[in-house]
Each structure stands twice: as structure tokens, then as C-alpha cells.
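Entry 14. Structure prediction run on the chain below.
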Amino acid sequence: QVQLVESGGGSIQAGGSLSLSCVASGRTFSNYHMAWYRQAPGKVREFVATINHNGAVPNYADSVKGRFTISRDNAKNTVDLQMDSLKPEDTAIYYCKAWLPFVATEYWGQGTQVTVSS
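Output returned:
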């Protein structure tokens, strides 16, 4: 079992920056691949960014590429999402996800709200 807690959301004007953080507990964090997803009102949850268990091979959705940066610190059991040049369409609840390679089980946090005003 892995417990994930996100933080860092808030309200900001377009063009600004926010940094989200997800803290994991319960199992060996460095074994898990990590990702950020988001869900806007009335829309399905969508992929934002992912990073593998050792911090290599970050990958991003086209909509955030060049603006968002995912990183992790296995010593602190955290995965962060630096969000720059925010747009109103980035408004959503942002969720952290953890999973092991070749294992079906996924773990999700409770989400943190990000609101970007124009």
C-alpha cells in the first residue's frame, strides 16, 4: 500500500507559476514510477507528466510540454511538478499517481486544486 498526499495548489493569474508536491509513504518509493494527472470540471482525467522510478525519462503531455517540469527526490519520497506560464485551461484538480512496473495496482492521491484566472 502507498499513500500519496499532494500539496501546493492554489489560485493564480495566467502567466504565473505554481509548484505542486506529492509525498509518498508506505512502501519503497524508489521502486515506483510516478505521474501527475489532472481533471477539469466536466472532463475526464488526463495525463500530464510522468517520471520513472529512478528519475530518468520524464514524459509530458503535448499541452504542457515546455511549461511544466516533473522531478522526484527518492531520498525525500517526493515528486514535484513545476508549472510555469500557466494558462486558464490548466485549471483542474491535479492528482499524483504511483505504480510498479508490470503490476496492475495504481495508487492515487486525493488531489490538489489549481485555478488559473485570465
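The chain has a mean pLDDT of 95.
Filed with the rest of this week's runs.
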